[in-house]
Design goal:
- The protein contains eleven helices and eight strands.
- The protein is an alpha+beta fold.
- Helix 6 runs parallel beside helix 9 and helix 7 packs parallel to helix 9.
- Bound molecules: flavin-adenine dinucleotide.
Length: 399
Amino acid sequence: MTTELDAFRQEVRQWLQANCPASMRRPIVTEEMVWGGSALTFQTDDQKVWFERMRERGWFAPSWPTEYGGGGLDAKRTRIVETEMHRLGCRQPQYNLGVWMLGPVLLEVGTHEQKLEHLVPMMRGERRWCQGFSEPNAGSDLASLKTSGRRVSDAQGDAYIVNGSKIWTSDGDKADWMYALVRTDAGAKKQNGISFVLIDMKSPGVTVKPIELISGKSSFCQVFFDDVRVPVRQLVGQEGEGWAVAKKLLQHERAAMSKFTEGGAPSHDALQTALGYLVDGNGQVRDGALRDRLAGVLMDAQAFALTHRRVSEMALARRDVSGPASIMKLVQTEQEVAKYELLEQAMGLRGLGWEGDAFSADELDVCRSWLRSKSYTIGGGTSEVQLNIVAKRVLGLPG
Ligand SMILES: Cc1cc2nc3c(=O)[nH]c(=O)nc-3n(C[C@H](O)[C@H](O)[C@H](O)COP(=O)(O)OP(=O)(O)OC[C@H]3O[C@@H](n4cnc5c(N)ncnc54)[C@H](O)[C@@H]3O)c2cc1C
């Protein structure tokens, strides 16, 4: 078996070397991410080539069954593809919440028809997804959500009539479909009356309003539902049991977020860049305070990398990693903030440029990435909420 896996690793390595264009091995920046969807566009030929080659191999999702467009690989071979991509610094060919989060959930609890209807377009890179969980009065306390789904049976068939609104919907204005939580039983206890449904964003009654932030732009939207008809076949899992489905999905979201440094999300290596600023020609860091901070961040990064490896092995052995997923999300996002804080300190005023010719494009990108790093400690559940989950589920402390 080992020899077979070694041969597979060789083959993957050679294929990636031959097929991943050099520009697709540079660290990703937000503006260069290729988002799958009906509005798919490429800025460069290399992006297109890389996207198409990976799609043909089914390696948008190496472990998904081939009948749904995936690569059909077992866990060990999937890990080999992932580690070889990481080793070569290959970018993700397609970014899509559907692939990271909804897909694994559909594979677990979706019907065969739902898998065919939704996974196949994701694997062609033709359908972009957004997440409709948060509401104006339901963020950390998500189970207080009020968007309703009233079941009807009429001449058009069985459906839910959805009313209400979702907020902080990342890229809601660009998505083709939304996976959402709606309350289908107002009388049931909080978590029990919630269902997980898939909504076509082109449905009559859906209105998307982008939210402008102080920075002048944002990917956030508020989405309004006004008597939106969602066919019952778009219900994932059982009616009223959407909370359990959402918990599965959030695990995938947290796992995806904890893989930021593996090319899973935008991040140039803040720590490496900081080293470039801090270390002088003799390989030394003169400022004692900065040296201490650098040592701390480096040790944390190393400890995280080793823990990440251990948790990946646990996942590979199909052990429960729901607890570690919260720990990894918390630590990874907080560490990312710490790296950018250090980089900002090392760069001084050069790290605070917002616009204008006085700053290079890299410097402007550092400033935006630094600010953005803070948002990852909120999205997918805040750090405080992760701490609560870890306290309760991992450490077994009382609620
Ligand atoms: C970059 C980004 C992308 C996002 N994308 C999406 C998306 O696509 N779809 C979507 O549905 N949502 C999205 N969100 C929303 C996100 O899920 C919520 O912002 C998050 O769950 C927090 O909810 P809230 O903003 O209502 O804050 P609140 O829940 O009001 O929290 C406010 C503060 O109180 C603290 N707090 C709350 N409850 C507790 C508690 N029990 N114990 C201790 N502290 C507590 C929080 O940690 C926080 O500091 C995104 C957010 C960000 C930042």
